[in-house]
Design brief:
328 residues, alpha/beta, Rossmann fold, 2 domains, seven-stranded parallel β-sheet
């Protein structure tokens, strides 16, 4: 009798213990996975920072939202920054912001260079100023960009040319001016911060999309040509770089496949996310990065493998837009 009671008690204790374990198993598993992810990201961040330490890094349009964030992460990583922008006062404000939050014993004071990327005739002279800062360039980050939105027939040819200067001719002119220094040293990295619209064309952004397509084509070719010189070429293409306080506009857009498909593109990514990805791209020498949520990412694949479906969706969007304008 005692033996039976003992066995029963042991069975109950075992069942209770198993029940408690089964309840705690999932939280413990999630906690363990979270810890592993945190450690991995921390190690990755430290390795990314060490990869740019003492490197000469040039950032164009450093005074933009993304430019400031790139400046922050590379400065914190110990890079020797050369910051380029169109406005001296904004460059000085960025300089003050950077040196005020970092340890001067572990970082370098940034160099400041005035650069208007749309002024093609002056870029080669500015490139000489850049090279005179430290005698070389290890990493060139082409960040400057210009956007325009409107129907093709409403955008003047002069504006089309200005967009091409800012998004294509400017970056490639600066790249060509810096390239001989990298080739002679057989080292360096060139980063183009582009856009998903370098892969798919979104209506009413023809000039912008064309300039981004052109830039992707140029840097893809450059990547292959520079391999023999051990020079890396990377492109980072976010959907849309949103502002710090930007929120999606309200509206019943779910009813339309067009709006569902392309409105998602405008949600974009935060400048901090893009800057950290640029740092990771540099440290790991990634060739191409597409920063997009599933909807615009799917749009890229649909455009590639099912172009007729993609064009049908685009056409339906145009028809809906025209219908809405007529109703209003």
């Amino acid at each position: 009798m005692c033996t039976a009671i003992t066995v029963l008690s042991c069975g109950l204790l075992f069942s209770t213990a198993m029940g408690v374990f089964s309840v705690l198993a999932l939280p413990l598993l999630l906690l363990g996975i979270s810890g592993i992810i945190y450690i991995y990201q921390s190690v990755r961040w430290l390795l990314s920072k060490s990869a740019v330490q003492n490197k000469v890094v040039v950032i164009t349009d450093a005074i933009s939202g993304l430019g400031k964030e790139c400046s922050r992460v590379f400065h914190a990583g110990g890079a020797r920054l050369v910051l380029c922008g169109r406005t001296w006062e904004k460059l000085e404000a960025l300089y003050d912001a950077l040196i005020s939050v970092t340890d001067p014993s572990t970082t370098y004071a940034p160099k400041l260079i005035l650069l208007d990327i749309t002024d093609i005739s002056c870029i080669r002279d500015v490139a000489k100023e850049i090279l005179n800062c430290y005698g070389c360039v290890d990493i060139l980050i082409n960040n400057a960009s210009m956007k325009v939105k409107g129907a093709v027939q409403s955008i003047s040819l002069e504006l089309d040319k200005k967009i091409m200067d800012a998004n294509y001719f400017g970056p490639i002119t600066l790249t060509k001016a810096i390239l001989p220094n990298m080739i002679s040293r057989r080292t360096g990295q060139i980063v183009l911060i582009n856009s998903i619209q370098g892969k798919i064309g979104v209506p009413f952004r023809a000039a912008y999309a064309a300039s981004k397509h052109a830039a992707v084509g140029f840097f893809d070719c450059l990547r292959a040509e520079m391999e023999e010189f051990d020079i890396s070429v990377s492109t980072v293409s976010p959907t849309f770089i949103c502002s710090y306080h930007r929120q999606p506009a309200p509206g019943n857009w779910e009813a339309s496949i067009w709006k569902f498909f392309f409105r998602k593109v405008s949600y974009g990514v935060h400048p901090v996310e893009v800057a950290e990805e640029v740092l990771a791209t540099v440290s790991r020498k990634k060739q191409e990065v597409l920063m997009a949520n599933p909807i615009p990412r799917a749009a890229v694949y649909i455009r590639t493998f099912f172009p007729e479906l993609f064009f049908a969706i685009v056409a339906s969007g145009i028809r809906e837009k025209l219908k809405t304008e007529e109703e209003n």
